[in-house]
């Protein structure tokens, strides 16, 4: 594991940059991860998806797939791609501080 600093807090990440320990996450860390990914500011729709991803992971132990995310989060898949370019489920999971969803490359 590698340690990086987000929002003044050292956190452990895997080789792809996903937080290794979900309890190290907070909204300031999310904002910095998003900025690194090219999302300058997280709006209400971003937070809806991020919070959905976190709660789904904490309930089920697995991050939701893009299909589940589009159906259950209330945000259509097309909009997910606008909010989180280049792989919404993977990027939203990274920003949410949870492991990469299965099936994402």
Number of domains: 1
Structural class, from helix and strand content?
Answer: mainly alpha
- Report the oligomer: single chain
What CATH architecture label applies?
A: Orthogonal Bundle
What share of the residues does DSSP label as strand, in percent?
5-15%
What percent of the residues sit in helical stretches (DSSP H or I)? 40-55%
The SSE order reads: EEHHHHH
Describe the structure.
The chain has 105 residues and is mostly helical. The chain has a single domain (2-96), classed as DsrC protein, C-terminal domain (Arc Repressor Mutant, subunit A, Orthogonal Bundle), CATH 1.10.10.370. Helices cover 48% and strands 10% of the residues. The chain is built from five helices and two strands; from the N terminus they run ββααααα. Strands 1-2 form a two-stranded antiparallel sheet. Strand 1 and strand 2 form a beta hairpin. The longest helix has 17 residues, at 44-60. The two termini are 19 Å apart. The mean pLDDT is 92.
Question: Any chance you could write out the topology, listing elements then pairs?
Answer:
Layout: E1 2-6, E2 9-13, H1 27-36, H2 44-60, H3 66-72, H4 77-83, H5 88-96
Antiparallel strand pairs: 1-2
Helix pairs in contact: 1-5, 2-5
């Amino acid at each position: 594991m590698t340690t990086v600093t987000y929002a003044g807090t050292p956190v452990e990440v895997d080789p792809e940059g996903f937080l290794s320990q979900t309890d190290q996450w907070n909204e300031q860390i999310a904002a910095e991860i998003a900025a690194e990914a090219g999302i300058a500011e997280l709006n209400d729709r971003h937070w809806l998806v991020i919070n959905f991803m976190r709660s789904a992971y904490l309930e089920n132990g697995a991050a939701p797939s893009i299909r589940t995310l589009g159906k259950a989060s209330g945000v259509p898949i097309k909009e997910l791609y606008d909010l989180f370019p280049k792989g919404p489920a993977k990027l939203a999971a990274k920003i949410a501080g949870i492991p990469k969803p299965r099936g994402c490359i």
